[in-house]
Amino acid sequence: MIIAIDGPAAAGKGTLARRLAAHLGYAYLDTGLLYRATGWKVLESGADPENPAAAETAARALDPSDLDNPSLRDDGAAQAASKVSAIPAVRAALLDFQRAFARRPPGGAPGAVLDGRDIGTVVCPDAPIKIFLTADTDARAERRLKELRDRGIDAIPARVLQDMKERDGRDMSRANAPLKPASDAFLLDTTDKDADAAFAAALAHIRHDQPTG
Ligand code: DC
After folding, report:
1. Rounded distance, CA 71 to CA 41, Å?
2. 84 alpha carbon to ligand 1 midpoint, in Å?
3. Alpha-carbon gap, residue 135 to 150, rounded angstroms
4. Residue whose CA is closest, atom 1 of ligand 1?
5. Which of 20, 23, 46, 115 has the most neighbouring CB atoms within 10 Å?
6. Is this structure's pTM higher than 0.70?
7. Cα-to-centroid distance, 9 and ligand 1 (Å)
8. Domain ranges for the chain
9. Which residues pair with 163 in a beta bridge?
């Protein structure tokens, strides 16, 4: 069983995906972390995240321990992630790992929840459950700001909004695996929903489509 969750930045994908995985006893993969770790590695090497050769080398050299770096949550890593993710060779290098995780979830879990931008369209197009999370840009920027402030980072609201728009624009307009809902995705707008309401709506959808869920 595979649950694919896609959507733009700060739509609530991670919170929902983690909660669904815990509730259902499934394994969870935050695929954004793979791109963030790749972007981080490129920055660390002093190269430009838009340099295809440097980005591909970083993606191929990725080690599971690279994913534990707390700095991957920062906006610098997010922007670098968005840049390396537009490079086809990077996406190709990360595809097999994501598909293997979905098909054979670690720990013998009976299913997997993956969140990202292209899970329902490219990574797992046959996933029986696909959820595309959306929310107004202002609501998402507000959430992102709160998240940063909760982590003690004094972010500037206008800058957070601008970074988010820039990243969404790049993620939606790239030629390779752009951010878009799969034609068979369940669209869930979380603008007026808190995490509990979004979880309840997603679970109701899963139970409706897969009564054993
Ligand atoms: O979900 P996130 O904010 O951690 O993702 C960071 C960036 O990685 C995002 O701006 C685009 C890229 N990404 C992607 O292209 N495909 C995915 N499946 C996940 C993330």
Report:
1. 11
2. 10
3. 21
4. 32
5. 115
6. yes
7. 8
8. 2-209
9. none
The per-residue pLDDT string of the chain (213 residues; one tens digit each, 9 = 90 and over) reads: 999 999 999 999 999 999 999 999 999 999 999 999 999 999 999 999 999 999 999 999 999 899 999 999 888 999 999 999 999 999 999 999 999 999 999 999 999 999 999 999 999 999 999 999 999 999 999 999 998 999 898 899 999 999 999 999 999 999 999 999 999 999 999 999 999 999 999 999 999 877 554
Nearest CA to ligand 1 atom 18: 116
How many angstroms separate the Cα of 73 from the Cα of each of 49, 67, 69, 70, 188?
17, 10, 8, 6, 24
Q: Distance from the CA of 211 to the center of ligand 1, in angstroms?
A: 31
Tell me if the domain spanning 2-209 has CATH number 3.30.420.40. Answer: no
CA distances from 9 to 48, 57, 114, 143 (A): 22, 26, 15, 10
Neighbour tally for 131: CB within 10 Å: 29
User: 184 C-alpha vs ligand 1 centroid, how far in Å?
Assistant: 21
Q: Report the number of secondary-structure helices (H) and strands (E) in the chain.
A: 8, 5
Kindly list the protein residues whose Cβ atom lies closer than 6 A to any atom of ligand 1: 9, 31-32, 35-36, 78, 81-82, 85, 116-119, 167, 171
* Phi and psi, residue 6, nearest 5°: -125, 165
For 113-134, the DSSP string reads: EEEESSIIIII-TT-SEEEEEE
